[in-house]
Amino acid sequence: MSDTLRVAIVGAGVIGAVHARLTTRLGRAATLAAIVDVDEAKARVLAAEYSTRPYASTAEAYREEQIDVAAICLPSAYHADAVVEALEAGTDVIVEKPIDVTLDAADRVIAAERATGRTVSVVSQRRFQPVASFIHSSVTNGDLGRITSGVVESAFFRPQEYYSSGDWRGTVEIDGGGALMNQGIHALDLLLWMLGTPISVSALTARLAHEGIEVEDVAGATIRFDSGAIGLMLASTAAYPGLPVRLAVHGDAGTAVMENDGLSFFESASAARPSADALTESDVPDGWTDVDVAHHRQYLDVLDAIRTERRPAITTADGRRALQVVLAVYESARTGQPVDLRQ
Predict the structure, then answer these.
(1) Collapsing DSSP states into helix, strand and coil, what is residue 265?
(2) Residue 86, pLDDT score
(3) Is the pTM of this model over 0.70?
(4) Closest of 96, 133, 112 to residue 258, by C-alpha
(5) CA distance 141 to 146
(6) What's the rounded Cα separation, in Å, for the pair 287 and 261?
(7) How far apart are CA 51 and CA 337, in angstroms?
(8) CB–CB of 207/178 below 8 Å?
(9) Between the N and C ends of the chain, which has fewer C-beta atoms within 10 Å?
(10) What's the CA gap between 18 and 293, in Å, rounded?
């Protein structure tokens, strides 16, 4: 394997463009070798921006460009098929969230990963933010004591035009869900990372501010964890003008709060608050957000995992667990009953 891994972006839409931009900032770790989209015109436009080659066929791109890593940036319900195809072509994968929209599809990905021995990581870049990493370390080190509860909010806003921008957006079949499946899943993943194994979900969802869609624009849930801790989750695309993600983790010996990508509160009976410098990224490219930097760090983790044959920090099991909770939220909202995740 070459020191510089060759990456193909599969999907030339908005998210594919983000991955293309990130890939070109990986230095010697990787190079952008191809842009693939069934809409060849879209592939050509994005490929021209980064002076790489466009393809309408993934099979052709994998063969002609000797691709090492496929970044799957397609609509959600197409993820599993694209991941399995890449794995069977001998290509490692980083796949956008969610892993897919059904547990059967997620299990197909995991089975193919095991059968091929390749690496797959699901994008959950917020875990790589310095403040999120610090709070997780505080949890695992016991600095917050016994974790008793957590609250996470992703109160975003998407105008009607967002859902009108693609005929698949806002559909159950392709999008798989709305504010939670596609936006709030990142924040939900943080809550699961902090609090552990979820065992039950009670939830409500609603469609209140958008027309012509089949999915929710507001979701709220109470999640019980096997430790006894209780988590509260809000996901919305109907909260004008939109707010940053907020995460609070409470224990019997401390509390930590992340807000606007910073540590807005930290108090521990046994540990000191870190300095601002300790939680600040250095050498951030112009125009990049903290989330962009975290996304970049996940890419570097995946590439290192491929080279060293270790598991990536975020695995397909993590992606499946987040999807399982999202689907449990939808089931609980549909039936009006709690969903037991242990069954």
Answers:
(1) strand
(2) 98
(3) yes
(4) 133
(5) 11
(6) 16
(7) 53
(8) yes
(9) C
(10) 12
Per residue in 138-154, pLDDT tens?
999 999 999 999 999 99
Cα distances (angstroms) measured from residue 225 to each of 1, 197, 199, 258, 283: 42, 6, 5, 21, 38
As annotated, the residues of the chain forming the CATH 3.30.360.10 domain(s) are: 126-268+301-340
158 alpha-carbon distance from chain centroid: 18
Architecture of domain 5-124: 3-Layer(aba) Sandwich (3.40)
Residue 222's pLDDT is: 98
Q: Does domain 126-268+301-340 have CATH number 3.90.850.10?
A: no
Instruction: Round to the nearest angstrom and report the end-to-end CA distance of the chain.
Output: 43
Collect the ranges in the chain with pLDDT lower than 70: 1
Q: How far apart are CA 242 and CA 153, in angstroms?
A: 11
Return the sign of the alpha-carbon dihedral for residues 246, 190, 203, 96.
positive
**What are the backbone dihedrals phi and psi of residue 46, each rounded to the nearest 5 degrees, phi first?**
-70, -40
Question: Quick one: tokens of 38?
Answer: 């069934």
